[in-house]
From TrEMBL:
Protein name (Swiss-Prot/TrEMBL): Thiol-disulfide oxidoreductase
Pfam families: DCC1-like
Source taxon at top rank: Bacteria
A single GO molecular function term of this UniProt record: protein-disulfide reductase activity
PANTHER family, alphabetized: DUF393 DOMAIN-CONTAINING PROTEIN (PTHR33639:SF2), THIOL-DISULFIDE OXIDOREDUCTASE DCC (PTHR33639)
Length: 130
């Protein structure tokens, strides 16, 4: 079963998070694709995800998770103590998503957008892209 993470391919912060997840996912639980890619658009259509989504998206067992729920379900599968972050699922979703939306709204201002040229991912990471 593939767990697929859709992320904003223009966002530097999102790219850093993909690298973070990859380094803490030695069992290759996750595959990645930018929301803007053909595959990302195909998955958006297949799972009826709003086209204007401004969130990381996790597709797991044919279920779609967005915003804080996606982030916490991703953390649950990471090596180390990161899985403990899943305990935040106990916080009511409107509160969790409020924090998530605040960060998402400001991510370009705080972290910037990716430049036209960027470092190529390792061949191992490229194999995990759809």
């Amino acid at each position: 079963m593939r767990r697929i993470i859709l992320f904003d391919g223009d966002c530097y912060f999102c790219d850093v998070n993909v690298q973070f997840i990859f380094k803490r996912d030695p069992y290759a639980h996750f595959y990645f694709t930018p929301l803007q890619s053909d595959k990302g658009q195909e998955l958006i259509q297949k799972f009826a995800i709003p086209k204007d989504i401004d969130s990381v998206v996790l597709i797991e067992n044919n279920k779609v998770f967005t915003e804080s729920s996606a982030a916490l379900h991703i953390a649950k599968k990471l090596d180390g103590l990161w899985h403990l972050l899943f305990l935040f699922i106990l916080i009511p979703r409107p509160i969790r998503d409020g924090v998530y939306k605040y960060i998402a709204k400001n991510r370009y201002k705080w972290f910037g957008k990716k430049k036209d040229s960027c470092a190529l991912p390792s061949s191992e990471l490229r194999r995990r892209f759809l």
